[in-house]
Amino acid sequence: MVQFNLPANSKVEKGKYYKDNTGSKNIRKVNVYRWDPSKNENPRLDTYEVDMDNCSSKVLDVLNKIKNEIDPSVAYRRSCAHGVCGSCAMNMNGKNGLACTKAHSELDGDIDIYPLPHLKVLKDLIGDLSTLYKQYESVEPWLKTSKVNHKENIQTKDDRAKLDGLYECIMCACCSTSCPSYWWNGEKYLGPAVLLQAYRWIIDSRDEDRKERLKKVADELKLYRCHTILNCTNACPKGLNPAKAIAEIKKMLATA
Amino acid sequence: MENNNPLSPHIQIYNWHISSLVSISHRVTGIINFFTITLIGLWIASLLLGEQNYAFTSLFLTSFFGKFACLGIIWSFTFQIFSEIRHLIMDLGYGFEQKTTQITGLIVLIGPFPTTILIFLIGQHLL
Predict the structure, then answer these.
(1) Is residue A98 one of the residues assigned to a domain?
(2) Are B116 and B71 in contact (CB under 8 A)?
(3) Which of A31, A34, A187, A234 to mutate to test the interface with B (most CBs of B within 10 A)?
(4) pLDDT digits over A198-243, tens only?
(5) A224 neighbors B79 (Cβ within 8 angstroms)
(6) pTM score
């Protein structure tokens, strides 16, 4: 049976309140999910008053400002800050996205920042994605070909175009962790991110393992737990469409 | 070793989208329909037991509560039909663009209400 409630040790409690000390008139409240693995406490929601007059445009800038100027103990992943690495994926005001490409002006009211949903938390905003990486490995995301020539492996323009909307995926996990099916069956269902990657290799004209790949993914739990809820497509910060990729796999299996 | 780290909040914090609302309503109406069809089957079977049983069911169905239940059932069935048509089109690989899913989702969410009224009116005039 699916567990809708959070386990007792995961209930979010009220946290500390950090009052603004800059005297700014343009204050915004930012609520951040906090959990410290070195303490035996429940997660809490800390509130920071942030001076928005001296803050750049993205949610990541807000977090950096908090970390630099208010509370250096906040932990979160970030690297490129340009929507390319996918490190700063998190849940902002109830929707997954990349903190570095999400403008805080697009969010209404107080800003609520949580880690990606339904993951084991490692610290503060950092979730444990090891299951997802294992599943990614299971689809063998590399080219399988018998050709051993040392020249280019040529593809027609049309075949190359089939990879558009797939190769851009940065594996930030925004889609998979937005998917209720993945929340309830995360161990068995591969989830949108991994299935989009699986489709990327299935559809690649240079890959010779298409049949095997399809056979491997054709599973009641691995694939067909997708009920086209479409949270994945709504969440994708790169504007890709994992739901369509999954539908294409289902279609290939049905018409094969 | 058991992982005792907390689980990050999920359904508690995640926003509802049109498409996720359609999906959960599809499931709920599916369960309602499953029981409804069973009940309709039992009702028809009870006819075989004689006029009295028919009169009893009829009394229930023409009562205010019975009519309300009937309307609910019609809504639930029409919702399934709308949603299934959307699913069929999607299974063919169409209608996955964000805008399209929102429009078709809205049609599925709103459409069953006028359809229910229409079926109710048709039923009233035929009887």
Answers:
(1) yes
(2) yes
(3) A234
(4) 999 999 999 999 999 999 999 989 999 999 999 999 999 999 999 9
(5) no
(6) 0.92
Q: Clarify whether residues A121 and A51 are in a common domain.
A: yes
Give me the residue label for tokens 């990486």. A133
Per-residue pLDDT tens over the stretch A118-146: 999 999 999 999 999 999 999 999 999 98
Burial class (CB in 10 A: 0-12, 13-18, 19+), A195: buried
ipTM for the predicted complex comes to: 0.90
Instruction: Choose among A191, A178, A254: nearest CA to A222.
Output: A191
Alpha helix locations (H) across A77-179? 130-138, 157-161
β-sheet bridge partners, residue A31: A47, A112
Burial (CB count within 10 angstroms: exposed 0-12, middle 13-18, buried 19+), residue A84: middle
For residue B97, give the chain A residue with the closest CA: A241
Same domain, residue pair A161 and A68? no
Long-range contacts of A73-80 (CB under 8 A, 24+ apart): A73/A36, A74/A32, A74/A34, A74/A124, A74/A125, A75/A123, A75/A124, A75/A125, A75/A126, A76/A124, A76/A125, A76/A126, A77/A125, A77/A126
Token pair in block for residue A53:
């007059």
**A13 in the same domain as A121:** yes
Domain hosting A246: range is 130-255
Q: Given this model, what pLDDT does residue A1 score?
A: 63
Q: A233 contacts in B (CB within 8 Å)?
A: 96, 98, 101
CA distance B109 to A117: 26
pLDDT digits (tens, 9 = 90+) for B14-67: 999 999 999 999 999 999 999 999 988 988 888 888 888 888 888 888 899 988
Q: Would an 8 Å CB–CB cutoff place B9 in contact with chain A?
A: yes
- A120 interaction partners in chain B (CB closer than 8 Å): 3, 5-8
Contact A180 B20 (CB under 8 A): yes
- What's B19-126's CATH class? mainly alpha
DSSP summary character for residue A178: G
Q: Is residue B11 within 8 angstroms of chain A, CB to CB?
A: yes
